[in-house]
Amino acid sequence: MHACMYLFLLTVAEQSKSTELQFDFEDFDFTTKSAWTDLQLKVEDKTLWVPKSFLIVVSPVFRRMYESDFKERKTLVLPLPGKKYEDVLEFLKCTITAAMTYDIVLQVLPLAHEYQVKHLLMECKYFLLRELDSIPKSCVKDSYDTRKTKDYVIKYSKICVMADKYGFSDLIEKCVEAFSVVNCNYYKDLPDFHKISKDVQNKILLGRLTQVEKKCGF
Question: Residues in domain BTB (predicted)?
């Protein structure tokens, strides 16, 4: 469980001492109204139930909202237009305890960035670093035109897009290093390569050129 959650949960625990209510820390259900929920999030015509204090603790964006003169400050219902219900639900779950998978990172990383949930951003970054390291370099090194290699390189590019978009500089460096052993013929066929910024693309190409020169003894 993340450190910022302890602040919220300890507050709830103190409140529980003087009441008959018991709070289940690990199995909090955002889909059901409870004695602890005082705010409704409306997503795709569905409702998620959250304690307002929870959002204030985990997200400086929500904290500023409720500390300012925004109309949402006193509202009991907060619409989240343009968001997907399953993504927001997974995001809320991950703020308490992050059981990360690659697909979950794809779901929650945009929301963690939008709402500036730093501990969740770090969880996503560390997962992607581990994911990148898990790809066997021998399967991509200077090879070309194999199905498995192409799948791995596609994952490289997807991770690199996320690293670039969300400013994960150490992950970008890892991606540049990973691409340095990949045959350049792959680059033009990667569906996500054009989404990488020109600056990072140039670093990738320079890394590849340096690798080729070393191999050729230049």
Answer: 37-92
Q: 135 near 178, Cβ under 8 Å? A: yes
Q: What are the backbone dihedrals phi and psi of residue 35, each rounded to the nearest 5 degrees, phi first?
A: -65, -20
Residue 67: strand, helix, or coil? helix
Kind plus residue range of the DSSP H or E element containing 56: helix 52-58
Q: Please check whether residues 124 and 161 belong to one and the same domain.
A: no
Contact 104, 90 (CB under 8 A): yes
Phi-psi region of 146 (alpha: psi -120 to 50; beta: other; left: phi over 0): beta
What domain range is 148 assigned to?
138-218
Q: What is the pLDDT of residues 148-196, one digit of tens each?
A: 788 888 999 999 999 999 999 999 999 999 998 888 888 878 889 999 9
Is 11 in the same domain as 81?
yes
Number of domains in the chain: 2
| CA pair distance 76, 68, nearest whole angstrom | 16
pTM, whole model, 2 decimals?
0.82
